[in-house]
Amino acid sequence: MKKVCVISDLHLDHNEHILGIDILTDCLIPFLKKNKIDVFVFGGDSGGSLSEFIRLQKKVVSEGIVFWGIPGNHEMWDRKEKDSWSVYEKLREFSRPLVLGNHAIVGNMGWYDYSTASDMYSTKELDKMKGWMDKSFCRWNGMSNQDVAAKMLADLDEDLSSIDKNKKIIGVTHIVPFKQFIEEKPWDFRWNYTNAFIGNTNIGKKFLEYNTKEIFFGHTHSKRYARVNGVEVFSTPFGYCRHNEWAYSNPTSQIEHSCEIFEID
């Protein structure tokens, strides 16, 4: 049996600056060791750069724990790299399908295809991404959001199709894979506009085409759970300490609240 821990949205750059601590050394690693975790699965948004992701990966591996992880939209902001595709391809190394006994961990960060958008906005209006920071910081070499989303969905399909049909798939994506997790506020036009940049329901559909048993996601910073077509779906966000997103003031307690821990054979 292997003990697995899944969490997303650590936002180390933001949270460590505010709290004045090393979240990995002081909180995450002691928590993983206390719970005797064998495999650590990360669902994206370590911080605003590739280097934060690599720091997380190296720290986990240095403790003898297997690391598997996808980036989120924030890693794509890295200004030291040639472009966002460069960041994406470099971090793909850490999210290749991982077979563990009867299970396989498979995933992709995903991108916005507007399938969670309100129908009151046109594609042209959504492409402007008004007030959404990915518009300023991500560099996709002129590709539209929907084209980026299609490329990532194709990558996910390729990885899923490589897995033996008898394996039980643990699916991981950064953005929201099903519309029932999207909160709508008819009176709040800005909220409904930005829902376009929260999810991609085609990722959820893609996972359901295969022998997927659980799906994990982040991005929304809201802890959620539901069963979709018999598949258990969890969000596992650590979130920002400053924006009333934490259930606990203690970061270790918040890790325990945010993550999911389970055993696989």
Care to describe what's here?
Helices cover 34% and strands 18% of the residues. The protein has 265 residues and is of the alpha/beta class. The chain has a single domain, classed as Purple Acid Phosphatase, chain A, domain 2, CATH 3.60.21. The protein has a six-stranded mixed beta sheet, covered by helices on one side. Strands 3-2-1-10 form a four-stranded mixed beta sheet. The radius of gyration is 17 Å and the shape is globular. The N and C termini lie close together (5 Å).
Quick synopsis:
The protein is of the alpha/beta class and 265 residues long. 34% of the residues lie in helices and 18% in strands. The chain has one domain: Metallo-dependent phosphatases (Purple Acid Phosphatase, chain A, domain 2).
